[in-house]
Amino acid sequence: MEDDGREPLRTFAVASLWSIVSALPSLVLHALEIPRIEGDTADAGPLILSGLWFLCGGLTSPALGRILGAVPVVKALPPAEPRLDHLPPAGALLVREAATLRGQLDALRFDEALQRAWELAGEVDRAGPEVRAVLDSCGASLQAVREIAAARAGSAIPDPLLQARLDAALAEFERALSSPRSGLFR
Length: 186
Known about the structure:
With 186 residues, this protein is mostly helical.
């Protein structure tokens, strides 16, 4: 973060304003010339007014600390999408759809999420030969979605566990296509 020189000026202005505001009760009492606080004789008037100023300053210093320590809200950048340059456009679209579905799993009902994953698995099966070749070479498959749907039909496994499995299956599909295997080890 760059410091453009305005921060020390802002700090000085806020601290000066705080000092004046915390001195207001003392200045008001001084202007009213209340006996025993303000008088011609050498009494405790200046000490009382100074003490009141320090007391007001001490009581309001946490607010000053919050004002001076305030950090502006900075919006975070969206997460970077994985580079999919090595995939044909149709393969990259499948990976993005899987990522979108994974991001929405918590917001969707499980049946709806499973339906969308089933449709995505159908799209993978209907993919062209170029995409099929990439899927096979990467070892990417959505066969686990079919197994989850079969388990759901049997209804023996609770939905939260099936949802976790669906999330893992989609994540594995994304990972397999996002980070391709390089050539053979030499």
